[in-house]
What we know:
By secondary structure, the chain is α+β, with helices and mostly antiparallel strands.
Amino acid sequence: MKIILLISILFLFCHCKPQNYTYEISGSLPSNIYDGELIYLVPFKNASPETVDSTRIKDGKFTFKGNDEEVKILRMRPLLRLAIQELIVITEPGTTYIIADSTSAAYGTPQNEVLQNWKNNLIKTNSESAILHQRIKEASNTQDSLLLASFKDTLIIRQQDFNYQILMQNDSNTVGQFIHSMTYHSLREEQKKSLDKLSN
């Protein structure tokens, strides 16, 4: 009887031991209208029902905790993605703070700061590029068209240099590998060679 009691106590102790998590994602939404909705944390690659995490929103907030470091997508059900933008995050050690809205953002941990900086720059560049593209279409003469095209070329070079610097500084971590997969093809040949040497 004493042995059974001892085993029961040990069993309870083992199962009540708090889990040590390496990462925490602490998020907030613009209002409480989303309370009760599920929000999902989905692996960027090879997602399956077994690897998707979810939690319910309460008081306009949500939290995820875990131990794996990888690229994941924070998303809500499809109809709500029009108002709450999907967000790519790195589940790295520490607490990542999420503002989930029409321009969702992440901050608080080193790799997510890099990822957010990259996202902000990409949005800015795409916006400037779209304006230049429209102005080129509307240009009234060849001289103006060529001048605007040169501005667009400068914009491309600036984006290449920005991506290259990020990759040089993050060649071996998770965010670097992700941005590499998204931008390597768009770099200049000398930048590609330099990165290839770094990885060898």
